[in-house]
Amino acid sequence: MKNFDINEIKEIKEYLNGLFTEERYESFYLFSVKLDSAISYDIDGKINRNYYSEEEFNELPEKEYICWRDIKKTVLGFMKDGKLPVKMKLILMFNKDNVNRLIEMNNIPIHPDNVRALFMNVIYSENRLSITTGTSLNVFTMDKTLEDLWDKTVEKYYI
Questions:
Q1: When you count CB atoms within 10 A of the terminal residue's CB, does the N or C end of the chain come out lower?
Q2: Pairwise CA distance, residues 89 & 33, whole Å
């Protein structure tokens, strides 16, 4: 997994507000969030299949991770009255359809099934907000085309 520090965000409250309100982030999945505010929260975005009946589970649009659009209000609720948390690490995953489209549109020499995830990490600590990327593959490759493209995509569309 590659981890590349793309950018430190200067307008912290504005960026976080967009993260919780703008549609451009809604197609991401929540991989995890660790947030310290009045108390600490540690959320795994993986869907708990045991919570659902077979019928309910089959009706879910996504089967592995919860969509950011479906959980963002809950996460925002942990930050009361617009007050920033003490620290937060939010890991979002690009949805599979978008991963496939990114690979296809850019003729990346890797099969989409070999891409485990493309991550966007939002890290807030000590009054600093930074965005990093991560790429997780199911195979080893020396080709960094996908990693470089993912860095540029996040920088262009999500910062």
A1: N
A2: 6
User: What gap in Å lies between CA 128 and CA 140, rounded to an integer?
Assistant: 33
Quickly list H helices, 34-129. Answer: 54-59, 68-77, 96-105
CA distance 33 to 74: 11
Q: Give the predicted TM-score (pTM) of the model.
A: 0.90
The string of DSSP codes covering 49-61 is GGGS-HHHHHH-S
Determine the Cα angle at 13 with ends 9 and 14, to 5°.
Answer: 75
59 pLDDT band, cuts 50/70/90, is: confident
What is the token pair recorded at 45? Answer: 């975005």
What distance in Å separates the CA atoms of residue 132 and residue 120, rounded to the nearest whole number? 6
CB-CB contact of 1 with 134 (8 Å): yes
Tell me the per-residue pLDDT of 27-49, one tens digit each, with 9 for 90 and over. Answer: 899 999 999 998 999 999 999 99
64-96 in b/e form (b: 16+ CB < 10 A) is ebbbbeebbeebeebbeeeeebebbbbbbbbbb
